[in-house]
Design brief:
There is one protein chain. This protein is an alpha+beta fold. It is 36% helix and 15% strand. It is built from 25 helices and 25 strands. Strands 18, 19, 20, 21, 22, 23, 24 and 25 form an 8-stranded mixed sheet that branches.
């Protein structure tokens, strides 16, 4: 079905009778595939947008079915970066959909033809990627991501519109009749293999969009990195190249993975860098004309800009705000939404006198990209020099200055922007962080993430703090599997959540376990990896949501057998872990963990060890350490052990560790060892040596305890090897004897068969009997069926009689031998594996000599004859270091 380019949008008067529940207030725009109107939903007194499709679509049963299915799917989505769908239906044969009305224009109209600031580009595309990830998790593909389908709402929050609801989807359609996607943004498989299209096609389009924002161009062949085409960090090159790779298998597997990469880069780019002053642009630049059907907005007052300022989105949005959803209405094949449309003189408004040309500025090869966060203005005009004023203190500077006072509970001075409600003070921190980093930041400044327990609290916070994007709060179900708690221990009311939330969605980084406050005054659950602003809370008399208070409540809940764990706790197969951002001694950390009903963390399995190592490495970054529940005991022959008494397993020491120089270092931590390599290391246990300690709550049944009679202290390596060889030999003896019985029986059966066949032969003689006896005696002596019988010429008569039995016995013997070789290889693997495990155990214990002794045994046992000697009851000498050097 092709778009109806002759579609005439109904007038407001014609349309109003079909929508008695709405007051249609304005016509916004139309395209070949529909028209959009602004309206007010009377019952809820909220603004909405109504999109009407041509009658030809409503008359197509297959399209109507697809439209209804996708509309229902879209209505279930709830995400700050997606345009919400409220309802759909049929009005006089015209399908319609009612959706969120976004007061703003599309990204195409706000950024077309110019590169924007790289930090702003990341912010926009990260939001788009998170929105797409939410849609993909609900089984919905967009299929036409491009700047024209991205709206910029208040504060330039990107919102994705036009999820293909105006296009038929599915099998049975003629491919020649369906053209979806926009050239330049469409992934190769859309044309080459449409049946294989999945979410990775959307990821391709997002990569193209990011490239365009950074360079003002879409990628072309041959592909050139964006850092070469435009002026952006080279770190974008790999991200964009992977997102736009021609092969779907080599792209990011999910939009969430792409969003996380962008969030990491955004955090990295927030660090201060030296910037080159920007060359002033020539005055009098032309403005993009309004699209067909769009009422021109009143131009914003031009504000002179300094030469180093970027152009923020807010100015453009303020200048072009209309009741429209251009990202959703530039519909059809994509041409209407992504082309500048000529306007009549009446639409252009009152002519403005052109300014006199100014002296041409000195050109630079590549000027710094603009940002889309302010309205373009005329060239700066000279101003009288202003008296030098003291720069205003930023929020972060104020928090740094007041940090010690705030941590002590002194609230006599708070940063500018803090707002009081009851006995608490609240402050919005706009520098985005993942949830855990935001929680640690709050704790470091004597605050907690805000606990807003009522609907009035949410409404007040959005209004007073001027919230324009999702922001973290102190609410989580981490470690509690669906039971949500505020950091102060209270349970949230159900009416605080947005519709359909919390949806308990899963994600690649552990699920959506943390709550954010949305600008619509409701809560949504999100993954901890999202970089969001966050709200701090200080309370007179102390914070009930501080980590100290949370840990106290854990101990009480465990005693009451109704366990509840602090926000940020991770559940690894039933064991809970929480990193505490405090620089305390190992002894203090040990005591605090016990007071909370837990203990310093111990790796009880490979999975736990892997999670602990990965998480702490991400937490620490490039420096510092984290206390773990291990300590060295004893003086004459000290050994390492865990506080739980478990086997000292799963410990991978950093190079050069444990360090025995510079005095006793008997406490275990994770951190950077020699050469900046990460791993376990020993330390003296002082507060200055660690930035965190890791607490664990687990049932004794989940611990890796020694078996009956097993000591945590290893015996001497030679004594251990004697005992192990005997145990190994005893274990393999049964298998070997079973093989030998089968082998011997095959030899015996063949000998019997030979004698039987020979006796029945017609030319049986005394000489033949002697021959057979000689062959059977030789077989019994050698213990195997011979490859050939080597019968003399005079006994060729016997060949036919015994040939068949010989072939059968020989084949059976070869099969038995093959099984034996396999069993032997398995035994060798088990032997070397057990030796290697003991080597690692001794390395963890610090027994370097014993580990080296057993390493030589492991090498020697790879030789078949060496292992056979052990299986036969011998005790071959373990090669010493000199023997190994001579072999080399």
């Amino acid at each position: 079905m092709s778009p109806n380019l002759d579609f005439q949008a109904p007038s407001i008067e014609e349309l109003q009778p079909h929508f008695p529940a709405y007051e249609i207030t304005a016509f916004i725009a139309q395209g070949g595939m529909g028209a959009v109107y602004a309206a007010r939903q009377i019952s809820l007194d909220r603004p909405v947008a109504i999109k009407i499709l041509p009658r030809q679509f409503g008359a197509d049963p297959q399209f109507r079915s697809s439209f209804e299915a996708e509309a229902k799917s879209m209505a279930r989505l709830n995400h700050p970066n997606l345009i919400a769908v409220y309802d759909f239906g049929d009005a006089d044969g015209m399908l319609y959909i009612i959706m969120e009305l976004v007061e703003g224009k599309s990204l195409h109209h706000s950024a077309y033809g110019r590169a924007i600031d790289q930090e702003e580009a990341i912010r926009l595309v990260s939001g788009i990627s998170h929105g797409l990830a939410h849609a993909h998790q609900h089984g919905i593909l967009h299929r036409d991501i491009k700047p024209g389908n991205i709206l910029l709402g208040p504060e330039a929050v990107p919102k994705i519109g036009d999820f293909g609801l105006a296009r038929p989807v599915g099998e049975g359609h003629n491919p020649e009749e369906i053209v979806w996607g926009t050239p330049g943004y469409s992934a190769p498989e859309i044309v080459n293999n449409p049946g294989a299209v999945d979410q990775r096609a959307d990821i391709f389009a997002v990569g193209v969009l990011l490239y365009e924002l950074l360079t003002a161009k879409v990628p072309s062949e041959p592909w050139q990195p964006p850092s070469v085409v435009g002026q952006c960090s080279p770190e974008f090159d790999g991200i964009i190249r992977r997102a736009t790779h021609p092969s779907p298998d080599l792209r990011y597997g999910s939009a969430e993975d792409l969003a996380k990469e962008l969030d990491k880069l955004a955090e990295k780019l927030q660090k201060p860098v030296l910037r080159r002053p920007k060359t002033p642009a020539a005055a009098g630049g032309s403005h993009a004309p309004s699209p067909v059907g769009m009422r021109p907005a009143t131009p914003a007052i031009a504000v002179p800009q300094t030469k180093t300022q970027s152009i923020p989105v807010i100015g453009i949005v303020a200048a072009i705000v209309v009741f429209g959803i251009i990202g959703f209405i530039m519909i059809g094949s994509g041409k209407d939404g992504d082309k500048k449309t000529a306007t009549s003189p009446a639409e252009q408004g009152t002519p403005v006198a052109k300014p006199k040309p100014l002296p041409k500025p000195t050109p630079t090869p590549r000027p710094k990209p603009e940002t889309i966060t302010k309205t373009p203005t005329e060239e700066d005009t000279p101003k009288p020099a202003k008296p030098e004023t003291k720069p205003e203190e930023s929020t972060s500077q104020a928090l740094t200055r007041l940090q010690a006072k705030l941590r002590s509970g002194d609230l006599s001075e708070l940063p500018k922007g803090s707002v009081k409600r009851g006995t608490s003070y609240f402050l919005l921190i706009t520098s985005a962080r993942p949830w855990l980093a935001a929680s640690h930041y709050a704790e470091a400044h004597g605050a907690q993430l805000a606990a807003l327990g009522t609907k009035d609290d949410l409404e007040w916070a959005v209004s007073e703090l001027k919230l324009t994007s999702p922001s973290w709060l102190g609410l989580s179900d981490s470690g509690m599997e669906g039971r949500w708690y505020w950091v102060d221990g209270a349970e949230p009311s159900e009416n605080l959540w947005a519709a359909g939330q919390p949806d308990e969605s899963t994600s690649s980084d552990g699920g959506e376990d943390y709550a954010a406050l949305l600008p619509d005054q409701s809560l949504d659950d999100m993954p901890a990896s999202r970089n969001l602003p966050f709200i701090l809370q200080w309370t007179e008399g102390g914070n009930s949501g501080s980590l100290t208070k949370q840990l106290e409540r854990v101990a009480a809940s465990l005693k009451a057998k109704r366990p509840s764990f602090p926000a940020g706790t991770q559940n690894i197969n039933g064991s809970r872990f929480l990193a505490i951002p405090e620089s305390v001694s190992w002894d203090q950390a040990h005591n605090l963990a016990q007071a909370a009903g837990g203990h310093l963390a111990v790796p009880s399995s490979e999975e736990e060890a892997s999670w602990i190592s990965t998480s702490i490495q991400e937490l620490l970054g490039e420096e510092g350490g984290c206390w773990i529940g291990g300590r060295q005991k004893g003086t004459a022959t000290p050994i390492w052990g865990f506080v739980t008494g478990e086997r000292f397993d799963f410990v991978q020491w950093a190079p050069g560790q444990p360090d025995t120089e510079d005095g006793p270092k008997k406490c275990l931590q994770l951190g950077r060892g020699q050469d900046a390599d990460f791993g376990y290391r020993n330390a003296a246990g002082e507060p200055s040596e660690a930035r965190f300690f890791l607490v664990e709550w687990s049932a004794p049944s989940r611990r890796n305890m020694p078996g009956a009679g097993e000591a945590n202290r290893p015996a001497g390596a030679e004594d251990w090897l004697v005992k192990y060889r005997q145990l190994f030999r005893d274990g393999e003896k049964i298998s070997h004897e079973r093989w030998k019985r089968r082998h011997d029986k095959n030899v015996e059966d063949f000998a019997d068969d030979m004698e039987s066949e020979t006796r029945t032969a017609r030319r049986f003689s005394r000489e033949a009997e002697k021959l057979v006896d000689g062959i059977t005696d030789s077989m019994k002596e050698n213990g195997e069926v011979p490859e050939k019988l080597n019968l003399p010429d005079w006994a060729r008569w016997a060949a036919r009689a015994v040939e068949k039995e010989h072939e059968r016995a020989l084949a059976k013997q070869q099969g038995i031998w093959a099984e034996y070789e396999t069993d032997f290889a398995d035994a060798m693997s088990r032997y070397c594996g057990d030796i290697n495990k003991e080597i690692r155990r001794r390395q963890a214990q610090g027994d370097r000599d014993g580990a080296a002794y057993l390493a030589r045994e492991e090498t020697a046992a790879a030789d078949k004859s060496y292992l056979l000697a052990i299986l036969n009851g011998d005790f071959p000498e373990v090669p010493d270091e000199r023997d190994e050097e001579e072999d080399e």
